[in-house]
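So, can you check this one?
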Amino acid sequence: QVQLVESGGGLVQPGGSLRLSCVASGGLDGPYSMGWYRQAPGQQREMVARIGTSSNAVYSDSVKGRFTISRDNDKNTVYLQMSSLRPTDTALYYCNLFRFRDYWGKGTLVTVSS
């Protein structure tokens, strides 16, 4: 059974940076894609960034140029480097892995506030 554990969230001032990490374990015996999603209070969950097995990445327009997704296949880990953070980036950030179905982490909270 695939398990995902996120870390790296916290409180940061506008304009600051954070790096999120997500470690995957269990049942990873083939190719899979990973990604980050977020959900702000009262809003639907939205895709932030995804990365494929060849490290091909896609981003939402709202984070393009500010966030960078990367992965370390040896460590089964995906990262999200977030820069120039805005209060509107405040949300619970979820790690996602897709291999035949979606798997989700429990989320890590990012709060951007002065």
Remarks:
- The mean pLDDT is 96.
